[in-house]
Amino acid sequence: MNARPLRLSTTSPDFEAELSRRLHWSAETDAQVEQVVADILADVRVRGDEAVLEYTQKFDGLAVASVSGLELEQRELKNAYHGLPVQQREALQAAATRVRAYHVAQKRATGESWSYRDEMGTLLGQKVTPLDRVGIYVPGGKAAYPSSVLMNAIPAQVAGVEEIIMVVPTPRGERNQLVLAAAHVSGVSRAFTIGGAQAVGALAYGTKTIAKVDKITGPGNAYVASAKRRVFGAVGIDMIAGPSEILVLADGTTPPDWVAMDLFSQAEHDELAQSILLCPDAAYIEQVQQAIDRLLADMPRAEIIARSLNGRGALIHTRSMQEACDISNRIAPEHLEIASDDPHLWEPHLRHAGAIFLGRFTSESLGDYCAGPNHVLPTSGTARFSSPLGVYDFQKRSSLIEVSEAGALALGQIASVLAHGEGLQAHARAAEMRMKR
Ligand SMILES: NC(=O)c1ccc[n+]([C@@H]2O[C@H](COP(=O)([O-])OP(=O)(O)OC[C@H]3O[C@@H](n4cnc5c(N)ncnc54)[C@H](O)[C@@H]3O)[C@@H](O)[C@H]2O)c1
Ligand SMILES: N[C@H](CO)Cc1c[nH]c[nH+]1
Ligand SMILES: [Zn+2]
């Protein structure tokens, strides 16, 4: 099996068009997926538990008599944790500790209430409150993702969310013990073995057994993405996460094998995942291609990797590192590695990426599991305007205003003029009444 990412050069007159074609991704808006999802959601909304049961049997081959039969008891989560081999239990605990520490720091920096008084003694501020109940979607169709349990549940817990409901499909009823154990260490309140659009619908509308949530977070396949987009409004959502992406900016100083493996690491998620290398050194690009050829045969998921690299991968020769940075900013990748001896030279030039990994020792995969920052990140160029999943996704903000007597006089004059200008008499009088004391 060969993996030959598309070779591009920025000096080619067709470069822009070829790059755009490579970046284009349409599965998310596939009309057939949309219709299937619309039907499932409508059905779950009307028939609740009954519909959830039927779709779980149909898509996951899991048949039980009632939705409570799909609930994982807290005891089972705890037993899964204690039943893990010691090495796995310690790794899970170490990852959870680091992810928690990062999100606690994030809350301290960005997630606290604040206020001040103006010169007339009027109090102005913002009150931050956690959401009451959230649903976290943990993908489970083609692979199990205990790390995604941590990345969703821990920031919710740190934010102070009271009830965290986890959904995770378990094809043919096979329960992944690491996923269950991760739910135990990260404070999941209730967990159900359901997935796809039916799980999103159950969380968004509520059923007899599953309580309606305020927000749904977490990644998933095209069915999950489409369902999340459709239920937005009935509930909040974090983002629509597409297939994984990695972009490596290399100056030729990192061993080519390391870079090849980093490209594989996202390609192995999905045939639609995207791995791109940008480098000003043509000979180095050739060495990375040779490393790909040599290392691929040994990869258990070689077929998925090859499909991903052949269909969506690219090795791009640039005129300079600066030009590579400019192209990276246009792509706005989910994960951006700066494979350079001097990553801090280039980091100030990089503005759009879900997560930036600096230097040759920072493989993206460390971020997926245990560095600390969240691995649920904006994809498909949405890093231009959105951010990683974080504590802030599980909080909301209310403005606080307490006007002093002197403030009522000063603000009343401004409000009165503007309210009359808008022809809104009640607004004007409400302000004016407070000026007369
Ligand atoms: N961005 C991240 O942080 C992150 C993390 C982990 C995984 N991922 C991505 O999440 C995705 C997970 O996908 P997955 O498929 O393994 O699991 P999934 O849980 O997202 O989807 C499985 C569900 O899809 C539904 N489904 C499957 N075929 C269907 C059909 N024909 N009609 C209706 N519904 C159908 C079923 O209900 C099934 O339960 C992958 O693309 C992976 O790369 C992203
Ligand atoms: N790279 C994925 C996010 O794009 C997250 C993940 C989970 N497990 C391994 N990787
Ligand atoms: Zn990954």
From TrEMBL:
Reaction(s) catalysed by this chain's protein: L-histidinol + 2 NAD(+) + H2O = L-histidine + 2 NADH + 3 H(+)
UniProt enzyme class: oxidoreductase
EC number(s) recorded for this UniProt protein: 1.1.1.23
Residues binding Zn(2+): Q266, H269, D368, H427
Residues at which NAD(+) binds: Y137, Q198, N221
Entry GO terms, CC: cytosol
Keywords for this protein: Amino-acid biosynthesis, Histidine biosynthesis, Metal-binding, NAD, Oxidoreductase, Zinc
Cofactor note: Binds 1 zinc ion per subunit.
Family that this chain belongs to: Belongs to the histidinol dehydrogenase family.
Official protein name in the record: Histidinol dehydrogenase
Organism: Caenimonas koreensis DSM 17982
Gene: hisD
